[in-house]
Amino acid sequence: MDNTPAAPASPLQDLADHVMAMHAHDLDSAREQLLADAPALLYTADRTGLVAYLRTAEHVLLGHQNDPAALRPILAALVPLAAAHPPVQHGLQRAELAMSMAAGAPAAVGDLPPDEQVKAHYNAALARTRLGDYPGATALLDGAVAAAKAAPEHRGAQIALAAVANNIAADLRFDFQPPADDAAKAMLHAALTARDAWAAVGGWLEVERADWQIAMCASTAGEGALAVKHAQAGLDACQANEATDYELCFAWQAMALAALSAGDKPAATRARDAMQGCIGQLEDAGSSEYAGHCLAEIDAALAA
Question: How many CB atoms sit inside 10 A of residue 145's CB?
C-alpha cells in the first residue's frame, strides 16, 4: 500500500473547486472569480490545477452563460502552458469543440480521445438551453450517444456518456420552471438516456441512482406514473442489495415526491416517514443536515 501523502491542491485548483461549488447559487460571483482571480495563478499551477480550471471555466462561461467570448481569452492563455501536459491539450480541444457545437458550426474532433469527444457535448448542450433551444440540446445529447457508440470498446467514453446525460438532466431539473413542455421533454430524455448508459457500463448502484434521477425529473415535470415507476425500481434495488441508510434515505425521498406527483398523499406520507427513519441512522453530520433539508421540502409539499 502506498502511504505517500497526497500532494496539496494548488491555489488554482482550490479556486476552481470553490467556483464549482458556488456557481449554481451565485453565478455572477463565480464568473468574476474565474476572470479576475485565476490569471495570476496560472503560471504556478500544476497540471491538475490547469485541468480543473479549464473544466470549470468551460462549464461556467459556456455551459451556464453561453459566453464563448469570455472563454476564448482563457483558452489562449492556457495554450503556451499546455505543451507539456496532454490532458490540458485535450481540454483545450474539447472546449473548442464544445464552442463550435454550441454555435451550430462544423466541428472537427481531430485526435481528441473518445471520452473527451463525448464530454464536449455537455456544455454545448447546456449552452443551447440558455437560449431556450431544448430540441437543440437534445440533439447534442444524441450526438454524445452517437460518439460513444462509435467507440464501443472505450469504457471511458461509455462512462462519460452516462455522466453527461445525468448532468444535463440534473441541470434542467434545477432550473425547471413550469409550464415548459420542451424543457420537460429534454430533461426526461436526458435522464432516461443516463439510465440506459449506466445499465450498460455500471453496477446496481449506478442504475439505482439513475432511477432516482428519473423519478426526481418526472416528479418535477408532473409525470407521476413515470416517477413512481422509477422510484419503486430504485427502492427495489436498494432492498435487494442491502443498501446503506444513506442510499435508502434518498430512494424514499424520490418515492415521496413521486407519490405526491401522482396525487397519492398517503403513499407520500409513508415514504416521508421511512425517509425520516433513515435520516436518524445517518452518522455523517453533513449528510444528515442535507437530508433534513430535503425532508423539510417534502413536508412543505405535503402541507400545501
Answer: 17
Quote the pTM value: 0.93
86 & 124 share domain? no
Q: How far apart are CA 252 and CA 270, in angstroms?
A: 9
Instruction: Tell me, yes or no, whether 123 and 68 share the same domain.
Output: no
91 part of a folded domain: yes
* Structural domain that includes position 56: 8-102
Same domain for 126 and 65: no
- 71, 95 Cβ separation under 8 angstroms: yes
Same domain, 143 and 79: no
Domain count, the chain: 3
pLDDT tens for 12-36 read 999 999 999 999 999 999 999 999 9
Map grid coordinates 472537427 to a residue.
108
- Per residue in 174-223, pLDDT (tens digit) is 999 888 899 999 999 999 999 999 999 999 999 999 999 999 999 999 99
Q: Give the number of other Cβ atoms within 10 Å of residue 254's Cβ.
A: 29
Q: Tell me which amino acid residue 7 is.
A: A
User: How far does Cα 246 stand from its chain's mean position?
Assistant: 20
Q: What is the dihedral of CA 86, 87, 88, 89, to 10 degrees?
A: 50
Whether residues 241 and 281 fall in one domain: yes
- One domain, residues 52 and 79: yes
Residue 2, pLDDT score:
47
Q: Is residue 214 part of a domain?
A: no
Phi and psi at residue 165, to the nearest 5°: -65, -45
User: How far from 60 is each of 81, 232, 282, CA to CA, in Å?
Assistant: 21, 35, 33
